[in-house]
Specification:
Elements: E1 4-11, H1 16-27, E2 32-36, H2 39-50, E3 57-60, H3 66-78, E4 81-88, H4 103-131, E5 135-140, H5 153-173, E6 178-185, H6 194-197, H7 200-209, H8 218-229, E7 240-243
Parallel strand pairs: 1-2, 1-4, 2-3, 4-5, 5-6, 6-7
Helix pairs in contact: 1-8, 3-4, 4-5
Bound molecules: nicotinamide-adenine-dinucleotide (NAD).
GO molecular function: oxidoreductase activity, acting on the CH-OH group of donors, NAD or NADP as acceptor
Family: Belongs to the short-chain dehydrogenases/reductases (SDR) family.
Protein name: Gluconate 5-dehydrogenase
Length: 255
């Protein structure tokens, strides 16, 4: 087992915030496993990081499939890998108004964002507890775990759930030496938000509303995730930390 101890799993690590997390952690010497459902973009990321001299490994995983999660952890065990860090970054959004959302879309969002997060944490903690090791989890919530917005009901509900899963697991697993925290990204430029930020007037409104006066980027998140995964945050657990340029701090429109 010694060979593989200390690796960090990053779900949704092939793109956007997850890819930024993989790059920063690996550049700082951490062994990183990208766990993403998209094989092609995982391969692209590995290639682009390799061209910068940064190495990560990847395994295909759909976090909405409980059986696939069980198999994922079995395969790590079979390969002698014990992860001591988990970043739950995989997430999707289906926009729909509260009057007309479809039950199937609601379920799809919950299966990835909420149940996927909880089951990945469960498999991670079981492996650590079995080996008598300690570790850290960072979940990715959203500003919409802190306040509401129209047409995002299933997404907001899932991210509010991620915040509560984070607190619950932190309290339940503290005595096992497993810390659990979350980050709440603000407006971050990734493929998830590319379409809305391509609308100039929308982009301008968001930047004006953001106290630090710009959109966020994956590295802004990665730096906070790296802190929460590391021993630098050894006395921090159960916290949901906005990384949003100050949006949740107040309303710039009142100035
Ligand atoms: P992204 O679309 O760029 O990346 C998401 C990644 O998750 C992709 O690589 C995708 O293949 C993977 N993924 C999706 N479903 C999966 C599944 N079932 N199993 C495994 N992998 C899966 O998005 P992003 O903007 O980087 O978002 C990352 C996280 O940050 C998400 O949880 C999102 O909700 C959250 N977030 C993003 C923003 C933002 O402004 N971009 C704001 C708040 C929260």
């Amino acid at each position: 087992m010694a060979e593989g101890i200390g690796q960090v799993i990053v779900t949704g690590g092939a793109s956007g915030i997850g890819a930024g997390v993989c790059e920063l952690l690996a550049a700082r010497g951490q062994k990183v496993i990208v766990a993403d459902r998209n094989r092609e973009i995982s391969a692209e990321l590995i290639e682009s990081l390799a061209s910068k001299g940064i190495n990560v490994s990847a395994r295909r995983l759909d976090v909405s499939d409980p059986e696939a999660i069980t198999q994922f952890y079995s395969s790590l065990l079979a390969d002698g890998i014990l992860a001591t860090g988990l970043v739950n970054c995989a997430g999707i959004n289906v926009r729909a108004g509260a009057l007309d959302f479809k039950p199937s879309d609601w379920q799809k969002v919950m299966d990835v964002n909420l149940r996927g997060t909880a089951l990945m944490a469960q498999g991670f903690a079981k492996a650590l507890i079995r080996e008598g090791r300690t570790g850290a989890i960072v979940n990715v919530a959203s500003m919409l775990a802190h306040y509401g917005a129209p047409n995002l009901i299933s997404y907001s509900a899932s991210k509010g759930g991620v915040a509560m899963v984070t607190r619950s697991l932190a309290v339940e697993w503290a005595s096992s030496g497993i810390r659990v925290n979350a980050v709440s990204p603000g407006y971050i430029q990734t493929s998830l938000t590319a379409k809305i930020f391509s609308i100039e007037s929308y982009r301008h409104t968001i930047v004006r509303r953001t106290p630090l006066g710009r959109l966020g980027n994956p590295e802004d998140l990665a730096r906070v995730v790296a802190f929460l995964i590391s021993e630098d945050s050894r006395f921090v657990t159960g916290q949901i930390i906005p990384v949003d340029g100050g949006i949740t701090a107040g309303d710039t429109a009142l100035g």
